[in-house]
Amino acid sequence: MKVRKMNDVHPKIKEFAEKIKGNILASRAPVLEIPIRSLNNVEFNRQKGHFTIKGKLKKRALAASTSRSFAQTLRMLSLAKQLIESNDIATKRDAYYTAYNWLEAGFKSQQESDEIMDDIEAMLFTLREKLGFIPDEKGGDVVGKLIVVDEDEDKNIVRIDCSKMGTGAFSVPNSVEQLKFETKAKFVLAVETSGMFQRLVKHKFWDTAQCILISLSGVPTRAARRFVRRLSDEMNLPVYVFTDGDPYGWLNIYRTLKVGSGNAAHLNEFFCAPRSQYIGVTAQDIVDFDLPTHPLKEVDIKRIQDGLKNDPFVHAHKDWQHNLKLLLKLKKRAEQQALAKHGLNYVITNYLPKKLKDQKTWLS
Amino acid sequence: MSEDITVDSALKKELQSKLSFAEKPGAKESQGSEATQTRETQLSQVSQEAVEKKEQKQQKQKKPKSIKPDEVTAAERLSKGQRDISVAEFFEKNRHLLGFDNKRKALLTTVKEAMDNALDACEEAEALPEIYVEIINMGQDRFRIIIEDNGPGIVKKNIPFVFAKLLYGSKFHSLRQNRGQQGIGISAAVLYAQLTSGRPTRITSKIGANHSAHYYELRINTLKNEPEIIKDEVKEWDKPHGTRIELDLEASYYKGAQSVDEYIKQTAIVNPHATIVYVTPDGEQRIYARASEDLPKQPKAIKPHPYGVELGILMKMLSSTPQKTVSRFLCSDFSRVTSKTANEILEKASVEPGSKPKKLTRDDAERIINAIRSVKIMAPPSDCISPISEELVEKGLKKEINAEFYAVVSRPPSVYRGYPFVIEAGLAYGGNMPKDTSASVLRFANRIPLLYQAGSCSFTKTVIATDWRNYGLSQPRGSPPVGPLLVLVHIASVWVPYTSEAKEAIASYPEIIKEVKLAMQELGRKLSRYISKKRSVQDEIKKRGYIEKYIPHIALAIDEMLELGEPVRIQIEERLKEILEKKRGKIESIEFDENANKDYDEEFAVKRTAAGILDDDYLDEEQGSGKQSSEGKKPGNENEGEKDE
Description:
Chain A has about 375 residues and is an alpha/beta fold.
């Protein structure tokens, strides 16, 4: 799968600004065309194995209701150009604070500035990291059979052995494009909770299973997704995902890692790992392993129903529909750590080996 | 034209309007009803006596064929035990009924009665009125009032009766739109003047260039209700024709909401064809110049409409008609009665159409009245009414108040109790008027400003009963709307149903309330269209401001990205503004321009007070005046209202 190179952002910004200027000088109201970032503007592409954008655009013509965000978009773009030119970076929050200098064109909240940033990213069909904007939070933690080759600020090559992190872990940087990998691992195991990750690290599960462990800590960051994607593509590794047995773990964490999200509709081709397979906890596992459960919350039920109705990924996968419906029937959910009912290390000694062996219990 | 109005018919007429007013289920006069009752009792006693006296006379003269013997006996019996009172004497004791309840009001009422007569006289003679009013403060609560007009003058022999005999006048019997109607006002002022100052009233009148002016000094003989001539002279007067009246009376002068000043100002507003020169007690001369050269259309006199006629009047008309048959009488003495209608009425009443009117009994008359009510009769003609016209109402409003928005409405003619009337209304909104006080309501009847008793006037009540919230204004329960608003209501009618002889408030006839309500709703709709337009323009201005605020940011960002330099940046800014202008169109200016209203005249401007329209009632109480007794709230104590003395 071809990964598009994205180092052409600077001319793109100028090109865009020229177009706006041209329109204005020709006395035409300038219009911004921004791909809509939501689940209803993506479809599941079986061939590519991830969400692709359907191409719906929102047009933001200069008018009373849009004049403010119009000005903000252009100013944000100008800020990006300055960051690129000075080879600097700004976190999303930095950008939000920088805009305080724009006086009346500043943002009321960071959410507003994040939205504008995402708009620009989508509009220019680029990565916000390429614009000099980096996320506030970092990617996941990595431990296992992997050597990451990186450069430091002085362009020295740095080799990081992820099997020798002591009790800590390698932390995925905000931008992973420059990283190179060396590995003999058989697969990547992505784990939802850091509690579970800690247990697997403590007992060197990566060693026994010859794998790379990565903790996602909730919905994986773009960097974590991109990291997994590159590992999977370039090292030819399958990715197994282990989350809580609830709709959040499935539809938010797993689905986003595997095929992308609605919010990043324009970027999914870079930020997903289509070779991911879901190994647990499934609804069937709750029954088979007799796990302690909690009743489904109102929001869980809504998320399942919404997924069944609106998620193109669920539409494309019968096994997932079945899984969601079964959970609805059980009216229960179970956490990863519920396995501890059968003994603290039951997950290492029994659950994971059993699940990894039996492909029939996986979900696509 | 002038004729002696019998006491009974005048008071009957008044009583009828009173009684039918009290009967109306909608009239919320419960707290005053007891009082009204008492007043009616007083009136009816007098009228009863008068009727009896007349009946006695008739007995002597003509033999009472049409009157039942038992009534006569009762009358005879009653008359023995009773003293003869003249209406002048009656007034002396009940002066509050005519608007002389306190010194302050006496001043206003006197000016008002004299001005009403002056304006009526000029208009009847089709002359553009030029009225001169002077009030001189003579100290110790004594005032001299001088009012002079350029009317047709009064023929010598009538002068004493016009000014010094109560209930003498030309207007009472003709159903024609006039300011005065009872024949009571000016002579009441004369009587009040003589009671409080002891001095006679001086009249000068001249009927043409070739005639000499006559000068009279007059008093009223209160026992006989007859004029007493103190002096009768021929005088040189440089005026070609006109009348001048000079009275001395006890009074007090105040400025403000219910002052003479205000009355004259408002009179000028609704009489744009008149020039009024007013010299205030402070010696200041104010000239209200005529704004229109067009005399109001002279209203035609009409005959009474059958629906408005009641038993007493019918009986009087029957006895005085020259017609030979009752059928002819109905056709010729009433409006809208055809011979077919007449026969239908008479058939229902079981009265022979050929009967002589004078021979009909009271029972016959009563059956005719009942029959009239069950027969369909066309509404009376409305050409007898002379409204101010929408144009002049608006002009008047503009003169008086510098607002952003004016609306006027002239309702089609309608009818109450057989009397045609027209409601005209106007509204001024915004501008310099205070935003957080109750709306002012200016009330007018036949071009007379009504300054007192706003609270008991059906106009005010209807303004309050209208739901102004539907039209974008706030309105506390039971109050007029709140906002920069002034409402004007005018009734033009051949017979205005005042709640009292003082002519201060309009009675609550459902037909009148309905018309006022419809007028208010029409004004409200116009206002709400304006308010919503204003809002949308303000919105647009806000939006524009919004865009304009961000244009520099857009230009700056483009400049930063492309390093264009200031000239191009400015060009971009200008182009963006052009695009905006093209896209949103030119904006309509709704800014209030203080100088845009060419008709506005500071002199006329009504001074609004924080208390809004009801302040006059508060003022009355503040001054401890006896307005209450004019409403008859304290029965049996006629002197309640005369604390000032």
